[in-house]
Design goal:
Elements: H1 8-22, E1 30-33, E2 35-36, H2 40-52, E3 56-58, E4 61-62, H3 64-72, H4 76-79, H5 84-91, E5 95-99, H6 105-109, H7 113-119, H8 123-133, E6 136-140, H9 147-153, H10 157-168, H11 172-188, E7 191-195, E8 201-205, E9 212-214, E10 230-233, E11 237-241, E12 247-252, E13 257-258, E14 263-264, E15 268-272, E16 275-280, H12 285-294, E17 302-308, E18 326-332, E19 346-352, E20 355-358, E21 361-362
Parallel strand pairs: 1-3, 1-5, 2-4, 5-6, 6-10
Antiparallel strand pairs: 7-8, 7-20, 8-12, 9-11, 11-17, 12-15, 13-14, 15-16, 17-18, 18-19, 20-21
Length: about 375
């Protein structure tokens, strides 16, 4: 990138790209851009570009230090209960820009589950209000990089941020062109085979289910995907629920699995007769093993397949399934993608660079 990621010029270019190409902001529309301490410079850039487009921006701001002071003082109910004027603003909003906060996700994930749930008790009402408003928007991964999370991942925060900026500005039309033939093949096919020189050779079943194609445009009024009024950015994936009865062979990961509080590397999944028979990792195995052990029926069945489309990503934290040529196979629940598996468990392995054949015909990834 010719300009540093944290330069005003880069921030303005990204904001303009998102508002114009992904969200199609129009003159006179009301735009909310949420901001935390670590994302305030990005929010300012979005507000500036929204005004230049004739839109009407508003920035609600949360200070990271003050937020954690409230957590330390036990004010969970207060933090999880938005005020009447916030609901009123949301109900009159056309476009919403979400940036991840609080920034210290490691500290957030160390909270007891009950306490963490209290902090986000407003969530269901938020989506209900947003749907009624016909709101559209974006969840911006550029708000994810934070020193504590970068340390947990062993990631360089500048490289991480730079990749996210580049990938966010890939036009939706570019991603659509790559996605279209892949989606058609996955919907029409019956058998899928994944092969790579590292020992990957896995056959999976397809069940004529419609793939979910993510190219960076929000979906409004889609009953199948009610939360996709906010598109994730960067974007770029074709995902489809697999036939839960079919899986034979092995997938050997060559990409990291990024969990909310750390990583797992070197995953190897073995399947026989439609079931996961073993899952091994070079490191971080406990992040898979603990939840898998406590999960119920369906945890060992194939879940969904994701094929990445975005050319600007490479083993990028939290969006590892979007990398172009990345093939992700999950186990566990797949109802969110039109499947029948209701298991609450989600485990995954990604091989980037593998070949994928549908009914004997190789896909162009």
């Amino acid at each position: 990138m010719s300009e540093p990621t944290d330069s005003d010029s880069t921030r303005s270019r990204l904001a303009k790209s998102v508002l114009a190409r992904n969200l199609h902001v129009r003159r006179g529309e009301r735009v909310i851009i949420e901001a935390w301490t670590h994302t305030l410079p990005w929010a300012v850039a979005f507000a500036r570009e929204a005004r230049r487009m004739g839109a009407l921006p508003l920035i609600p701001y949360e200070d990271e230090g003050a937020y954690w002071d409230s957590v330390d003082d036990g004010e969970f109910a207060v933090l999880g209960n938005a005020s009447a004027h916030e609901w009123a603003a949301l109900a009159r909003t056309n476009v919403y820009i979400h940036m991840w906060g609080p920034g210290d996700r490691i500290r957030l994930n160390q909270l007891p589950t009950k306490r963490a749930n209290q902090l986000f008790a407003f969530n269901d009402k938020w989506y209900t209000t947003a749907r009624k408003a016909g709101l559209r928007g974006a969840r911006m991964e550029i708000g994810r990089p934070h020193p504590t999370l970068a340390e947990a991942y062993g990631a360089d925060i500048d490289t991480w941020s730079d990749q996210l900026v580049r990938a966010t500005m890939v036009p939706p039309t570019t991603l659509e062109r790559t996605a279209a033939p892949i989606a058609r093949a996955l919907e029409r096919g019956r058998r899928l085979r994944i092969r790579a020189s590292n020992g990957t050779d896995l056959t999976l079943g397809l069940a004529h289910r419609r793939p979910v194609v993510a190219v960076g445009r929000p979906r409004i009024g889609d009953a199948r995907r009610p939360f996709d009024m906010l598109t994730g950015l960067p974007s770029g994936a074709v995902r489809v629920a697999l036939d839960e009865r079919v899986a034979e062979g092995t997938i050997v990961a060559n990409r990291t699995c990024y969990y909310d509080d750390g990583i797992a590397r070197g995953g190897v999944f073995h399947f026989e007769h439609g079931k996961l028979t073993s899952a091994e990792f070079d490191s971080g195995e406990e992040r898979f093993r603990g939840p898998f052990k406590s999960a119920g029926k369906g945890r060992d069945q194939p879940g969904f397949l994701a094929i990445g489309l975005n050319p600007e990503l490479h083993d990028t934290p939290q969006v590892e399934d979007l990398e172009r040529g990345g093939v992700m196979v999950s186990v566990g629940g797949n109802q969110g993608f039109g499947g029948r598996n209701r298991a609450s468990f989600f485990g995954w392995a990604i091989n980037a660079g593998a070949s994928v054949e549908v009914d004997g015909r190789r896909l162009k990834l």
